[in-house]
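Format notes (please read before filing issues)

Several people have asked whether sequences and structure tokens are stored in separate files. They are not. Every record keeps both together, in the order shown below: the sequence lines, then the token lines. Line labels are part of the format and must not be stripped during preprocessing.
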Amino acid sequence: MVDNLQILELVHDHLEGSDKFLVELKVKAGNKIMVFIDGDQGVNVDDCIQLSRYIESKLNRNVDDYALEVSSPGTEQPLKLRRQYIKNTGRFVKVVKNDETIIEGQLLSSGEESIDLLVQVPIPGKKFKKEEKNISLTYAEIKETKVLAKF
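Then the structure lines:
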């Protein structure tokens, strides 16, 4: 059986000193290893290949048969770490609060305890008019945040 802690240490060893960071590590049944990384300046295919080769060089297929997948989380995956929020400052996001309220807006900043968004809110009494408003949400209020593709 593949050791989750061993994979975690290998990932951290390889990424140490770079702008890349681990977002999530999964070891599923049948020794399927899934590693999701991101970077302050993004992640490319070469980054994933290098990490994959590093992990493979440290594991012994004769001892543990495994399948390894290294990738970035992708835009369909929610943000999990504060560092991802920081990286996506300025982008448009969709936030689902714990009470299932949905808020869309531009991510202005990410602090230790909360994020700030610039949102469009309807002006009372003005049917088609909206105004911009800054709102803060604590991480504790947030169920999920995804980056939106705005064109």
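For reference, the curators noted about this record: The two ends are 46 Å apart (CA to CA). The domain at 82-147 is CATH 2.30.30.100 (SH3 type barrels.).
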